Amino acid sequence: MKGVDTRTAAWPTLMVFLLPALAVYAAFTAYPVFRTFYNSFFNIADLDTARYVGLDHFRALAGDSTFRASVVNTMIWSFVAPIIDVGTGLLLALCLYAGVPFARFFRVAWFTPVLLSYVVVGIMWLWIYNYDWGVVNATLRATGLGALAHSWLGDTHTALAALMVTHAWKWAGFNMVVCLAAMHSLPSEVLEAAELDNCGWAAKLFHVVIPLLRPTLLNLYILAFIGKMKVFDLVFIMTDGGPLWATETVSTYVYKRAFNWNTFDLGYPSAIAVLWFLVVIAFVALLTWLFRQKDRLEF
Amino acid sequence: MANAEPFADRATRMLRSAPLAAVLVLYTLYSALPFAWIATMSVRTTSEISANHYAWPTVWHWEKYRAAWFDSNFGTYFWNSTLVVVAAVAVVTVLGAAAAHCLARYRFRGNRLVYFILFSSIIFPPQIILISLFQVMAGYGLYNSRLGLTLVYIGLQLPLTVYLLEGFFARIPQDLFDAAKIDGYGDFEIFVRIVLPVGMPAIATTVILNFIQLWNEFLFAVVLVNDPGLSTLPIGIRRFMGDYFQDTGMIATGMMIAVLPVIVVYAFFSEKLIQGMTAGAVK
Amino acid sequence: MAVVRLDNLSKRYTGTADAAVDRVSFTVADGEFMVLLGPSGCGKSTTLRMIAGLEAISEGALWIDGRQVNTVPAKDRDIAMVFQSYALYPHMTVRDNLAFGLRRRDVAKAEIERRVALAASILGLEPLLERKPFALSGGQRQRVALGRAIVREPKVFLFDEPLSNLDAALRVATRNELVKLHRRLGVTMIYVTHDQVEAMTMGQRICVMNRGRVAQIGAPLEVYRNPADAFVARFLGSPPMNLFPATLRTDGGRALAAAGTHAIPLERWRTEALSPGREVLCGIRPEAFEIAGRTTAGTATVTGSLSAIEPLGAETLLLVDLGPGVGEVTARVRDDVDAPIGSTMALSFQPASVYLFDRTSELAIPAEGRA
Prior knowledge:
Chain B is mostly helical. Chain B has 15 helices and no strands. Chain B has helices at 4-16, 18-42, 46-51, 63-70, 74-105, 111-121, 127-139, 146-169, 174-182, 187-198, 200-215, 219-224, 233-243, 248-268, 270-278. In chain B, helix 4 crosses helix 14 (248-268), helix 5 runs parallel beside helix 8 and helix 6 (111-121) crosses helix 8. Chain C is of the alpha+beta class. Chain C has helices at residues 44-52, 94-103, 109-123, 138-151, 168-185, 196-202, 220-225, 230-235; strands spanning 4-11, 21-28, 33-37, 59-64, 67-68, 79-82, 156-160, 188-193, 205-210, 213-218, 242-251, 254-259, 262-265, 279-284, 290-291, 300-311, 316-321, 328-333, 344-349, 354-358. In chain C, the strands form 4 sheets. In chain C, strands 6-7-8-3-9-10 form a 6-stranded mixed beta sheet, sandwiched between helices. In chain C, strands 13-12-11-14-20 form a 5-stranded antiparallel beta sheet. In chain C, a hairpin with a 6-residue loop joins strand 17 (316-321) and strand 18. The longest helix of chain C is centred in the middle third of the chain and has 18 residues, at 168-185. Classes of the chains: A mainly alpha, B mainly alpha, C alpha+beta.
């Protein structure tokens, strides 16, 4: 009976389609994931010798204050920054949705930072935050607020916030485009009905537009959340976790423990990676469940 | 008189929307000026920049691009980036499209399981594979090689590619496949002659998305490639920055070299690019 | 040209108890136009897809042109199919759409061109050959889909509801074109539809399907006049046949069906064939009714209250409530009616136009002597 039904195919045919992708996946994703889990139970001082240490790494993590700092920073970043990103994106989208002239131009211009690499964005903002000649301090001094001039990235109180602003600068355009697309797909009857009900601008926004956009906004929040849980490049380039671990994230800490510190051991950072892997998955599952998205979660 | 009314209308509307106009202008400056600033610095020498960081270029030092390309190795980085990214995008598109077609079209045991595994990999934090990949690549002699980086990049972008293409391919009507079957075409011919051409818009979108993400990729490049001669652009810039921290002008030129291909593509295909970058978030 | 024979063809999907297609048997003669008719989900499309080779056959045998083709792939069955969605290749021009199936079959270039040109001229597609499907209207797409089947010069044409995406006017025109095409080509055609008008006007024979089974096969008028069961009776005819429960009785040697307060005379059956007390469904087609008082003797009459009037111009639909046990019946009469709603309305009918079905099996109780 095989071979006739057009929705089935012989296994060899299926494998020709699927196997190359599965092989790549197995070699460069699945196997490394298992290997990391495996490594987390070992002390790997060099690539050839591994010493079994059981759960020692995980126990050590509990007392690792740098790790704790990096978790706190990453959590702050993951929960707060998405609100900035999505909020800015939503406001920008609303501006364009209001039917301004040259909307297309603004949309294209505001989206540009999304396309830049973190290295470029990071160096750019290093200079913007530069104490002596950066835009921020130059502007403050020029407007007579020189007293507020600051070493933004050098101060433990402002460094993390400064990075979050940079991150938001890069990603706001992305959230704007997605919000705008969702707004344009809103049923126009609803907005017209709100118009007829003599709804004010703000009332329309809070009672009609935002509730209708809820799924999109939550989706963007989760998307941004996942992004921040992994954040590495920007920190690595701009502050390298400093000053005094004020901007250390889990990702940068793993990197340092694996490749930069003199205590060369791939086991301990593997343990962090495993723990963080489980945390990310748990949080994504939790957020999805909390938001009770009816639709399938879209990444 | 006939024109008076609309004009008055427009005037009041503009007055009322003055805050809106201010927001539009300010945000546009906010998002564009940093880039414009780097662009001006890229054609000014470091000493000129040190004198005044915000001056308009008096002499346009285009030769800095030449210097960056040849003397500061940006040509090599550019070539490495191009080689690795183009190869990885080409392969991941083919592999991803084939797998996506298989998952979208055929019923077989394990179909949804494979899909779910690939789909969930999208949220994996990269560290979970980063460290062991370093080991694995070293074991296979693929550490410090463009081929190794290319292979890793293929694996990195595969889940997203399959996810996006599966969604699109699944919407191609089954009748098209049935018609082609009756017309005498086999499974592979149908893939090449029907699925790929019909799925071109979606494939173009994923190609763009993969290209931008890999062109900008940093973490794996910094871990898996150590040799300056094999580095990609993001690593090259950072290395240059580390070695010549004070040479602001040349760093800016290097950054422009890294950004220009993206900007050129963006100038021509802005809509497609936006669509590509936001694919998956909008449905 | 070929005979298509289905022998107890069944389709079972894993995980479902009932067969989607259950032991369907019929033979389509060489050059015949056969229509598979039924409501959605009745298995008609699945049957067609099994004939096409797009769906595996679970049980039974399928013969095309004397060859059993159960496991022969679609491409080797020498059939062509027109899909409901037309399934035109969106990235190819009309010309390429027509030629695509021939190129694979090593037909010589000149021959491909000849056939494409011929099909294009039959269907009036010449000015459209270089266009892509998105630039065509619904009717034009439909013709391209047809053309793609014609150029193949297959033994059997299969149609899967090819007209259902067209608007009403175009559907009538295309219906006639298809009939002409069939006459011109003289090829075996199997046509699936849920539209009884299409079935009646196009089919040389109709196969009515219900719940995966064949309910009745026959010439359109024969099926219409002698429905094999209550389902076919309801399905063919518009508005559908009035069916209401009744109990058989004899009254002075004459057979009657007692329904509510009404007694329906039964003339087509021999009295001894109808056992008194048998529970039946009584059927009268809307067009069998006339407004009482204007017709000749020999008719029977039922009286009820008028509940709705739908004037259609050439005729009028009346909804008449015949009271408890019967409910509303529809009458299709030629007169204009302007009686007030709620007024008493007497409907007459020829006793020979009454149908009887068994209440439990819903099978028709055959009348004697008449076809």
